[in-house]
Design goal:
By secondary structure, the protein is of the alpha+beta class. It has helices at residues 15-23, 72-81, 112-121, and strands at residues 5-7, 29-35, 50-56, 62-68, 86-94, 97-98. Strands 1, 2, 3, 4, 5 and 6 form a 6-stranded mixed sheet that branches. It is globular and about 45 Å long. The two termini are 21 Å apart.
């Protein structure tokens, strides 16, 4: 992750879990992208790989929520190719896991249910 990336990160030393998640291109993530300017072409990112929903928060900051199976690196490449400038990217959901109410900079261990969910449904 770069300095402009925020959000959910799963750290594990379980090689079986890592292999399963990396190999499975169906693991969905939801990212919130903070744009440099208002997004004019709403159809620029509507492809079979991801769906973008325009979401205006407080003026003048514009954000886009994107649900995708792309990795963070692949998403950044798509944004760059589409000439969409962004300030930062926040991963809100990864494979059914959420940040919940965890403050920025904090961490917590996964619950047993979350570990089972990741191992069996990703």
């Amino acid at each position: 992750m770069d300095t402009d990336d925020l959000g959910l990160v799963v750290l594990t030393n379980d090689q079986e879990l890592i292999d399963r998640v990396v190999a499975n291109k169906k693991v969905r993530s939801i990212y919130q992208i903070f744009l440099e300017q208002a997004w004019k072409d709403k159809t620029a990112l509507k492809t079979k790989e991801f769906y973008a929903q325009l979401d205006r928060t407080e003026f003048p900051e514009f954000t886009v929520k994107i649900e995708t199976t792309l990795s963070l690196t692949e998403l950044k490449s798509c944004l760059t190719a589409a000439k969409i400038g962004f300030k930062k990217i926040d991963r809100l959901v990864f494979g059914g896991l959420t940040k919940k109410d965890l403050p920025r900079g904090w961490n917590r261990p996964l619950t047993e249910k979350e570990v089972i969910f990741l191992k069996h449904f990703s």
